[in-house]
Amino acid sequence: MSVMLKVKENSLAAESRIIRRAERRRNRCTNCAKWKRDHITEVQELRGPKAGLTKSFLVCEEGGLQFNGERPRDYNRLRGHRRFVVRVEARATHLARAFLKGQSYSQVEQGARRQPHWRSVDLMVAKYATKEQLADQMYALWKETAQRIIEEHRLEVGAATLSKLEIKEREAGSLTEGQLEEMTDAPR
Ligand SMILES: [Zn+2]
Description:
Bound molecules: zinc ion
C-alpha cells in the first residue's frame, strides 16, 4: 500500500517548508533585520601572506556596520540538509509512488538530468509493491527506461551547453575584431 509513501512524501514536503522558513530567519541582518541579500557586498583584497585573495563583506547602511559576508553555520547546515537529504529522499519517494501507482516515468518527471537515489527507490518499491508489480521484471524495466531517459537528457543538455559556448566564443571573437576596426579607423 502506498498510502504510507503518500504520508512520507507529504512529511518530506512539510520538512522542506519548515527548513526553508528557518533558513530565511537566519538570513536576515543582525543589525537592521533586512534580508542580507539587500545589502551591498564589498570586496577587499587581502594583504600580507594571503595577498591576491579576496574577502567579501556585507555592508549594512543602517549602522554603517560591516559584517562578514559568510553565512552562519546553522544556515548552511539547514540548507544543505534540505537540498541534499530531504530533496533526494522526496524525489525517490515520488518516483517509487509513481511506479506503484502504475504511472510511467515520463508522466512524473520531464527534463531531469541527474539520476535519482535509486537505492532508496529500490527499497521502497521492494517494501510496498504487490506481487504482480514485482513479477516479470516490471520494476527493472521501468527503472531501465527511466535511467535511459535521464541519461539522454543529460547528454542533450551537455551538447546544448557546448554549442552555446561556441556561439559565445564566436561572438567574443567578432566583437574583438569590430573593436580592432574601430580603433584603426579612429582619427588620432
Ligand atoms: Zn543590515
